[in-house]
Design a protein that fits this description.
Length: about 400
């Protein structure tokens, strides 16, 4: 069963076609699994082999084309008519000479799409060079345009049902963060803490279950807190140690990341305590500042003004759009809170506001995932915003 009602998918396709027309694209070859899900509902761990959704200005509905064995996955998850669910032969998978894109292009030719202006998602993680070359070689009369983020930008403004799902994901984030705090004790192995977090992410709440997150739990422990993208080891957690957690709830592929920091000991260092207070002030300032009409650049400036008072700076972005996605990221890869990004915030855009300071030999993280409301913003999770201290 698709996650959303058919009319919502039809509205998404309509918006996509409108944007295609404005950009002079007649056919869109969608390869990003999140965009495929967004337009058709398709949801399966099959993105490691070539698969596409074809959207044509003159087509009544999109066409899903993937591995033959995954037609069963499509039958369970998409809203499309049976004649628009097509599987290519199994002997094309990982073949040294033949390639699935040859079959896909033959299907496009049969549907009269061979001499059109075709948009391709050149920055999609799972669209490799060979697939693009095969697409061009087999459609010599077509003209190709880079449609890299066309659907991604449409996804940036959520529907009311998407917001409801993200609120459910936020509840899972709360539970997972509490498990992280409760499981982290002196003498525990990092991997065991990670296992407890993963269990809570997938089991979800009593009311609804969770899904696998696009990024597994990240946490920086001790001196490794200086590095932003490390995961766990089997090391034992020691006393007098700060650990930050960056994790997410995931519901129907929608994510609501959340970060907090825990100190195991009696008294954190002054630099950690002062940074926690400063970052907390920065987060409250940014959340109070967010509203429709401001730009991503202005949002970042509000944060920059707070840390500047302490003589600090942060080169990495402090926010980015987030929501529906598959590994390896939960970000939508569109708007970012950083200098030069003049994207205007709209109601129901959703951002991960990540105010992290990765310093020399230590670090501190604090974040919220929020949606832009009529006059401000609201968080998807309710979890104390502070440096947690436990002996």
């Amino acid at each position: 069963m698709p996650t959303f009602k058919k009319r919502e998918y039809l509205k998404r396709v309509e918006k996509t076609k409108y944007k295609m027309e404005r950009e002079g694209i007649e056919v869109l070859v969608v390869v990003d699994p999140a965009n495929m899900n967004y337009l058709t509902g398709y949801d399966a761990w099959s993105f490691y082999t070539p698969q596409v959704v074809i959207v044509g200005i003159d087509l009544d509905e999109p066409i899903w084309i993937g591995r033959k064995m995954d037609v069963a996955c499509a039958n369970f998850t998409v809203w499309l008519s049976p004649n628009n669910i097509i599987g290519y032969p199994e002997n094309l998978v990982n073949h040294q000479i033949k390639h699935p894109m040859s079959y896909i292009t033959r299907t496009m030719i049969k549907r009269g799409l061979e001499n059109k202006v075709i948009g391709v998602e050149k920055e999609a993680y799972y669209f490799d060079i060979r697939s693009y070359e095969e697409l061009k070689r087999n459609l010599p009369d077509a003209r190709f345009k880079d449609s890299r983020m066309l659907v991604n930008w449409i996804r940036s403004v959520k529907s009311s049902r998407e917001i409801e799902i993200m609120k459910e994901a936020g509840k899972i984030s709360e539970k997972a963060m509490q498990v992280a705090m409760d499981s982290t004790v002196v003498g525990a192995r990092e991997c065991d803490v990670a296992a407890a977090i993963l269990n809570s992410q997938i089991s979800g709440t009593e009311e609804f279950g969770g899904a696998y997150p696009s990024i597994f739990p990240l946490f920086g422990c001790g001196e490794k807190a200086a590095a932003p993208h490390l995961s766990w080891t089997d090391s034992l957690i020691k006393s007098d140690t700060a650990i930050w957690f960056e994790l997410t709830g995931c519901r129907h592929r929608y994510h609501t990341p959340l970060s907090r920091t825990l100190y195991l000991g009696t008294k954190p260092s002054k630099k950690l305590a002062d940074t926690a207070e400063l970052v907390g002030e920065g987060l409250e300032t940014v959340l109070d500042f967010i509203k429709p009409g401001i730009t991503c650049e202005e949002m970042e400036l509000a944060w920059r003004a707070v840390i500047k008072k302490a003589g600090l700076s942060k080169e990495s972005r402090m926010a980015y759009t987030v929501g529906l996605n598959y590994p390896p990221v939960w970000a939508e890869n569109t708007a970012s809170g950083r200098p030069g990004d003049r994207t205007v915030l709209e109601k129901n855009m959703t951002f991960h506001v990540l105010l992290a300071m990765w310093m020399d030999g230590w670090g501190y993280e604090l974040s919220e995932t929020v949606r832009v409301t009529d006059r401000g913003c609201e968080s998807f999770a309710t979890f104390p915003r502070k440096l947690f201290i436990r002996e």
